[in-house]
Design a protein that fits this description.
Chain lengths: 475, 231
C-alpha cells in the first residue's frame, strides 16, 4: 500500500513545513512541492468534481513522488516545527552564579556556526534554572526554575537572535495545587506540559501540570502512589516521583520517569549521597499513560532513578530509551508483539560500580545511535542501538571534568554539550568547568568545533540547550 | 457527506495510512474497522466518553467575521450555544487544511448518526486568507465538503472582512501564519483545531496527530455527558 510521504526540503527551516502529520506513524512529513500543489489547484480549477476526488488525485501525485524522510530534531516534542538544515542559534538556559556577571539566571544565545555569544537575557533572579522547551508553534521558549517554581517565557520569534523575556509565570505552586519545582516544558497543541519534581512539603510526590500557551493554568495530574495505582498493572511500583514526560502520539501514550524531591535536589549532592535515608527518596518507576485521558496504563519498576525519556522516531517504532542515574543502566520501554508495554534493562553505561551517574541522553533521528553522558567522569558514550534490545558501545570521549546535557542536530552531524547539573551538585574547584562545547560527528568520532567558557564569559552554569533558526519565522 | 467525497475519503485513507494496526482496539474497532475514512487508521484504543476530563483552557475569542452569505457576524455569537469544532484554514492550502477538513467531514458524518449529538454541535471553519477567501469563495469551498445530509451538524464556513479584522482573531487563538517566501499565495501555518463548549470555552486543541473523528466525537460526547455508544 502506498505511503503518503511528502517531499521534504533539506535546507530551509520553516514555520509549518514540517508539522503536518498525516499519518501518526509518519511524523516527519513535510509540504508537497509547489509543483505538486499546482497539480492539485489546476485540477480543481478545471473540474467541478468534489474536492475530495481532486485531493485524491493530488495525493496520488505526491505519493508517487515520495522521497525518503530526512533527519529530525532528536529530542523535541513531535508537535512542533522541525529544523532540517543547520541550526542558527543555540539557546542555553543558564543558572546564575552569585558574584559572576550579574549573577542571575539567563537565556544565552550562541551563534551555532561561530560559537560567539550574541545575546544574553537575564531574568533578574536565581531560580535553579534547569530545563525548558518551545511552544508548539516554536514562537516561545519556556524556561523553568526548580528552586522558585517560576516559569520564564521568552519570545524567540520576533527576533530569533535576540530573545526577549515577555512573561513570568509565578502562580505555578498555587494554581497546580501544590506542585513544586517545574522541571521542563513540553509542547502539546496550544499548551505546555510541565513535569514538576516536588511538592510544597519538599518530598518527591509530584505532578504533571498543564498551562495554555497564553500562560494560564489548565490542569494538574498527580503522579500516582502505589495505593492510588492499585488497579493499574504494576501499580505496586508507583512511587509518586516525577521527572520527564514525553508523548508518542501515534500510540496515544505518554511515558514518565522519576527523580527526587526538593529536599534532595536543592541539597549538596555529597550530603545526599552520605545520608542513607535521603538516598531512599529517589524514584524507581516509570509510567506509561493513556495520553488522551491522562490516566496511567501500566507502571514499571525501573530501579535507580530513570531520567530522560527519548522516543524513537521511526514511522513504525514503538520504543523509548531512558538511563538510570544511580544504577548506570540503559532501559528500553517498548510495545511487544502482543501490544503490551514492557520495560527491559538492556545495557550498562560505563562501570556502574564506579557510580558514573548517567545524565542526559540523545537518540539520533534514525534511531540507530544513542549518546549517553555520565556526569562524574565527564564522558560521553555512543551506543549502536540499531537493535534496541542489545545496545553496543562503539565510541567514548571525555568532554570535560563534568558534563550533563547533550543536544544533537537534526542531521546528526553536530552535537553540543553543557556542563552543569544542579548548582549544589556541580563539582567544585578546578573541576567546576562550565562550558558549552560544540562538536561535529562523522559517525565514528567527535571533532571539536568551538567552546564557550561560561565562567570566563561571566554567564553562569549552562544547562538546557535548544536550537533556533531565523528562517523559521521568515516572511 | 456526499457519496463522491466519502469514496474519496476512503481512497485517501488507503493512500495515507498503511496496514498493521488499522483500527482502534476493542469495541471501538468493531465500529471503525470498515475503510470509511482516515479514522480507521488511528491505531489506539479510545477512552470511553465521559471517563476523562476536558478541563477549561480559556475563553474562545470573538471578532468580526463574514458568513459565506457575506453577512457580518460576531464570531463569539456564532460559537455560542453549541459545542463547536473550530478550525482555521485557507482554501488554497493543498496539504494540511484539506486533510483536516476531510477529517471534519468524517466527524460530521459520524455525529449525524447519533441522536442527541448532531443538534448540539456544529463545525466552523474560518479562513485566514481573507484577501483571496472572500465569502463567495468560502461558499464554493463549502460546497466541496458539505452536503445536505439529513440531521447533519451545522457547518459554518467563515472568513474575515479584511486583514485588520483577522489579526486580533488570530492573535486570540494563537494561530501564527506567515507568507511562504517560495510560493506566491501559500501561507505557512500550523494546524490547530479547537473544541469549544456551549458556553464558549476552549476545552481541547487538536493537532493533526489527534484530529481523529472518532476521538473528537468522544470529546464532544464527553462534554455532553453522553455515555451512549454509537450502536
Amino acid at each position: 500500500m502506498a505511503r503518503f510521504i511528502l517531499a521534504a526540503r533539506k535546507d530551509s527551516p520553516r514555520l509549518s513545513g514540517h508539522l503536518p502529520v498525516v499519518d501518526r506513524r509518519q511524523r516527519r512529513a513535510s509540504f508537497p512541492t509547489l509543483k505538486q500543489e499546482r497539480n492539485v489547484l489546476q485540477m480543481k480549477k478545471n473540474s467541478r468534481r468534489p474536492l475530495g476526488l481532486v485531493l485524491l488525485a493530488g495525493a496520488a501525485t505526491v505519493a508517487l513522488s515520495a522521497t525518503a524522510v530526512l533527519a529530525d530534531e532528536t529530542c523535541i516534542s513531535p508537535y512542533m516545527p522541525k529544523i532540517t538544515g543547520h541550526e542558527d542559534f543555540v539557546y542555553v538556559w543558564t543558572l546564575g552564579v552569585e558574584g559572576l556577571g550579574d549573577g542571575w539566571d539567563k537565556l544565552v544565545t550562541v551563534d551555532a556556526r561561530t560559537g560567539k555569544v550574541i545575546d544574553s537575557d537575564s531574568v533578574g533572579s536565581r531560580n535553579e534554572a534547569h530545563h525548558g522547551g518551545f511552544t508548539d508553534d516554536r514562537r516561545q521558549f519556556w524556561a523553568a526554575g526548580l528552586d522558585t517554581s517560576q516559569m520564564f517565557v521568552f519570545d524567540v520569534a520576533t527576533d530569533p537572535a535576540n530573545p526577549k523575556l515577555v512573561k513570568t509565570i509565578d502562580d505555578f505552586v498555587e494554581k497546580s495545587g501544590g506542585a513544586v519545582g517545574p522541571h521542563g516544558a513540553y509542547a502539546l497543541p496550544g499548551r505546555m506540559m510541565i513535569p514538576a519534581l516536588s511538592n510544597k512539603d519538599g518530598t518527591g510526590r509530584t505532578a504533571l501540570v498543564e498551562y495554555s500557551n497564553e500562560g494560564d493554568f489548565i490542569a494538574t495530574h498527580w503522579l500516582p502512589t502505589a495505593e492510588e495505582a492499585k488497579d493499574v498493572p504494576g501499580g505496586e511500583f508507583a512511587d509518586g516521583y516525577g521527572y520527564d514526560a514525553r508523548v508518542l502520539p501515534r500510540k496515544n501514550v505518554m511515558l514518565t520517569s522519576s527523580f527526587t524531591g526538593r529536599e534532595n535536589y536543592m541539597r549538596p549532592f555529597g550530603e545526599v549521597a552520605g545520608d542513607a535515608e535521603a538516598m531512599k527518596k529517589f524514584g524507581n518507576s516509570m509510567i506509561i499513560w493513556d495520553f488522551h485521558a491522562r490516566t496511567p496504563k501500566k507502571v514499571f519498576n525501573v530501579p535507580g532513578v530513570p531520567l530522560e525519556v527519548r522516543w524513537a522516531w521511526g514511522e513504525t517504532a514503538a520504543h523509548a530509551f531512558t538511563s538510570t542515574a544511580l544504577t548506570s543502566k540503559i532501559w528500553l520501554v517498548y510495545e511487544d508483539d502482543k501490544g503490551e508495554w514492557q520495560a527491559e534493562e538492556v545495557a550498562d553505561i560505563g562501570d556502574p560500580s564506579k557510580l558514573p551517574i548517567p545524565v542526559d541522553i540523545s537518540l539520533s533521528a534514525d534511531d540507530k545511535t544513542l549518546f549517553a553522558n555520565t556526569f562524574m567522569d565527564g564522558m560521553t558514550r555512543v551506543f549502536d542501538v540499531s537493535d534496541p534490545h542489545h545496545p553496543k558501545q562503539v565510541y567514548e570521549k571525555k568532554i570535560g571534568e563534568q558534563v550533563n546535557m547533550v543536544s544533537q542536530s537534526w542531521d546528526g552531524e553536530r552535537l553540543y554539550y553543557t556542563s552543569s547539573l544542579l548548582a549544589n551538585w556541580d563539582k567544585t574547584g578546578d573541576a567546576n568547568e562550565q562550558f558549552l562545547k560544540a562538536y561535529s560527528w562523522n559517525g565514528k568520532e567527535l571533532a571539536s568545533r568551538f567552546e564557550v567558557d561560561f565562567t570566563k564569559e561571566e554567564l553562569g552554569r549552562p544547562h538546557m540547550m535548544s536550537f533556533g533558526a531565523a528562517s523559521l519565522y521568515a516572511n | 457527506m456526499s457519496r463522491n467525497v466519502r469514496l474519496a475519503c476512503a481512497l485517501l485513507a488507503a493512500l495515507y495510512f498503511t496496514g498493521g494496526a488499522s483500527a482502534h482496539d476493542g469495541a471501538h474497532a468493531a465500529k471503525s474497522a470498515a475503510p470509511t475514512g482516515p479514522s480507521s487508521a488511528f491505531a489506539f484504543p479510545l477512552p470511553e466518553p465521559g471517563s476523562y476530563r476536558l478541563p477549561p483552557i480559556r475563553a474562545a475569542a470573538g471578532g468580526d467575521v463574514l458568513t459565506e452569505e457575506g453577512k457580518s457576524a460576531d464570531l463569539a455569537e456564532l460559537l455560542n450555544g453549541r459545542i463547536t469544532v473550530f478550525s482555521f484554514i485557507y482554501t488554497r492550502c493543498a496539504d494540511i487544511c484539506p486533510i483536516a477538513t476531510m477529517q471534519l467531514a468524517e466527524l460530521r458524518e459520524l455525529a449525524r448518526r447519533i441522536p442527541g449529538v448532531s443538534e448540539r454541535m456544529q463545525l466552523a471553519s474560518m479562513s485566514f486568507d481573507p484577501d483571496h477567501d472572500t465569502a463567495p469563495v468560502m461558499a464554493e469551498y463549502a460546497d466541496n465538503w458539505r452536503d445536505a445530509g439529513e440531521e447533519s451538524p451545522q457547518w459554518l464556513f467563515l472568513t474575515a472582512p479584511d486583514q485588520a479584522a483577522l489579526r486580533p482573531v488570530l492573535d486570540a487563538y494563537g494561530q501564527a501564519i506567515a507568507p511562504d517566501p517560495e510560493a506566491a499565495g501559500r501561507l505557512n501555518h500550523i494546524l490547530r483545531v479547537f473544541l469549544i463548549d456551549e458556553a464558549g470555552v476552549v476545552r481541547n486543541i487538536y493537532s493533526m496527530d489527534f484530529l481523529d473523528p472518532q476521538l473528537v466525537l468522544g470529546d464532544i460526547r464527553t462534554l455532553i455527558g453522553d455515555r451512549v455508544r454509537t450502536d
